[in-house]
Write a structure and sequence with these properties.
466 residues; alpha+beta; Helix Hairpins; rod-shaped
Length: 466
């Protein structure tokens, strides 16, 4: 049971059924009340019509035994005088309730004089019938049949019999029958309708959620197989589920690319580390066998290169892990002069600008850009620091051959070398520009490659000002 109602389909079906059930109960109650009120009003109108017909005969002086309304055709009728005595009653009336008298046999006395007290609720002239009627519910037994009635009371002033009150009833059998019929229809129809609503909702939600189940199965299969090249099916419905499938596939694609980059990184790092380690081991083994042949300078160079490569890999690992830079103020002009100091052919033209970040990481960016520029420059490298709007711009330009436009994005990939001049011995491992861009992005900036004023490469680092 818990598993059943833990599904979206079951909850949606239950919710829709409950909402429809509440609406049906409210609508059914309103219909029954309205139907009962209308039928009660019709019965009251019929009773009032009968009472006024009898009152008209009394106002005209018709004797009690000549009243046409007492034959039982229009329902039970009582006529009471001003003292509450029953002076006329319908034929075959055996019991009555809901009127001012429960008597069913007339108590006639001598007719009062015309100057008797007029004791009605309103002052009426002889022969005048009251314009107001009083309605009550009651019951009566006529010729052995007991029914509920709607009674109307009408007052009339006669010239010879004084103030009289006429009670006439109209049966409520039609009202009761209609209400019972409507209630029966509702008791039978509402559950059937709720069943239809529940079934339709179940089928509709099942069809609507079918793509979600397909997505879930495919994701489970991807998890089991660890094959990130697979994609979940995307329905052609252009709705939220289709957007969910599209987003899921985009996430899988990004995850696949990330895993692939990590895999290539590990492979390239292993390859790059293997070379200096193998070279250093060879030199040490030779030195162990023949000390006089030890190439100390080469061993130191391989050790330094290995140390730099290890530092680069460690920094990339920290950047990939999402390490956030410090929020200290860094003077880019001063930092550029520090990194350019002692480098041959490097000139600096800088204005004071400050950014927030890690001084060590930003210094690493400038050092990598300067190393790359000096490696490809013919004679000169220029460093500029300036302010553009809310950004600080650091430019590093050389007078070399430049970077082909088609390769200006590829050079920022890890372990990428564009030509033979950037060999492992001369050009490094191909991590400098990749590290520089990653650091720039972590600081909320950008690093792009273009063409410099002297025709060589121009690298521009843009960072938000403090």
């Amino acid at each position: 049971m818990r598993r059943l109602f833990g599904s979206v389909r079951a909850r949606a079906t239950l919710g829709a059924t409950l909402v429809v059930a509440v609406a049906l109960v409210a609508a059914g109650a309103a219909v029954l009340l309205s139907l009962r009120s209308n039928l009660m009003g019709e019965a009251g109108t019929q009773a009032e019509r009968s009472a006024r017909a009898v009152a008209s005969e009394l106002a005209a002086g018709t004797p009690y035994d000549k009243l046409s309304g007492l034959d039982g055709d229009i329902g039970p009728v009582q006529v009471l005088d001003e003292d509450g005595r029953l002076v006329a009653v319908s034929e075959d009336l055996e019991r009555i309730s809901g009127t001012d008298s429960d008597r069913v046999r007339a108590q006639r006395t001598a007719a009062p004089g015309g100057d008797e007290d007029d004791s009605g609720d309103e002052s009426l002239e002889p022969g005048e019938i009251s314009g107001e009627s009083v309605f009550r519910n009651g019951s009566a037994t006529v010729d052995g049949d007991t029914e509920d009635y709607r009674f109307a009371a009408v007052e009339v002033e006669t010239s010879d019999r004084g103030h009289l009150t006429v009670f006439a009833g109209a049966p409520l059998a039609a009202e009761h029958g209609a209400v019972r019929t409507a209630l029966t229809v509702m008791l039978i129809g509402f559950p059937l309708l709720l069943g239809v609503v529940a079934g339709v909702t179940w089928l509709v939600t099942r069809r609507a959620l079918r793509p979600v189940e397909g997505i879930r199965r495919e994701m489970a299969a991807i998890t089991r197989s660890e094959d990130l090249a697979r994609r979940v099916p995307e329905p052609d419905t252009h709705d939220e589920i289709a957007r969910l499938a599209s987003t899921t596939n985009e996430t899988l694609a990004a995850l696949e690319a990330s895993v692939e980059r990590q895999r290539r990184f590990v492979a390239d790092a292993s390859h790059e580390l293997r070379s200096p380690i193998a070279s250093l081991r060879t030199q040490l083994e030779v030195a162990a066998a023949h000390p006089e042949l030890l190439d100390l300078d080469g061993a130191v160079e391989d050790t330094v290169r290995l140390q730099r490569l290890a530092a680069d890999l460690l920094l990339l690992a920290r950047l990939d892990a999402g390490e956030r830079p410090n929020d200290t103020r860094v003077d880019l002009a001063g930092l550029a002069r520090e990194e350019a100091e002692g480098r041959i052919g490097v000139t600096v033209a800088a204005e004071p600008v400050e950014v927030a970040g890690s001084r060590g990481q930003l210094g690493r960016v400038l050092a990598n850009l300067l190393d790359n520029a000096q490696r490809h420059a013919r004679s000169a490298v220029t460093v500029s620091v300036r302010r553009e709007g809310d950004r600080a711009v650091v430019g590093v330009a050389d007078d070399g051959d430049g970077v082909p436009e088609a390769d200006r994005e590829r050079i920022f990939e890890r372990f990428v070398r564009l030509d033979a001049a950037r060999s492992r011995d001369d050009g490094g491992a191909g991590l400098g520009l990749a590290i520089a861009r990653d650091v720039a992005v972590r600081h909320g900036g950008t690093l792009t490659a273009g063409q410099g004023p002297a025709g060589g490469a121009l690298f521009e680092l843009r960072l938000p000002l403090v």
